[in-house]
Amino acid sequence: MAAPIVSARIGGVFIFLFCPFLFFLEGLSTYLLPPLAFVLPLFASQFCARYDPNFTEDMLDMHYWKECPMLTSCKFCGQVVEIMTLNVHMLEECEKRSKFGKGFLTDLDANMDKCPLCQVVVAPLTETGWKEHVLKAKGCDKNPRTAHLRKQFAPAK
Ligand SMILES: [Zn+2]
Ligand SMILES: [Zn+2]
Ligand SMILES: [Zn+2]
Fold first, then answer.
1. Is residue 21 in a domain?
2. Residue 94 CA: which ligand is closest?
3. Which of 3, 66, 95, 156 is 20 to 30 Å apart from 20, CA to CA?
4. In which band, very low, low, confident or very high, does the pLDDT at 19 lie, cut at 50, 70 and 90?
5. Which range marks the domain in which residue 89 is found?
6. What is the pTM of this model?
């Protein structure tokens, strides 16, 4: 009968001790991260940085394949690429590229600073700019992988 109380107490002590430890870790992360980077990749998405200690290599593959918001599959060849490199992929690498019309490629070339999903200008055109566009708040308006986030905010019908 006393077991729940004991474990609650241990939980309390654990949180009490653990919180300062987390702050301590956060402060040190600048110094700790480079060496930790060898251990952590197994548990974190290398694109969106989502961290989950339950991630296994297989689950990470699944995350990249199906749900990582930073990735998308090319609508022409189906290859999963980073949204930030999709323009370059279509312009230079896509295996269906030979089927693209000249107009499409010229248009693409002129719009390399725009998100290939929603056509909004991404600024700055850096990894930070892209992460901001794709991950911030409800995410990119046309990103199918973050559609569930926008649904929560949408007014009920
Ligand atoms: Zn991810
Ligand atoms: Zn492609
Ligand atoms: Zn977008």
1. no
2. 2
3. 3
4. low
5. 69-152
6. 0.71
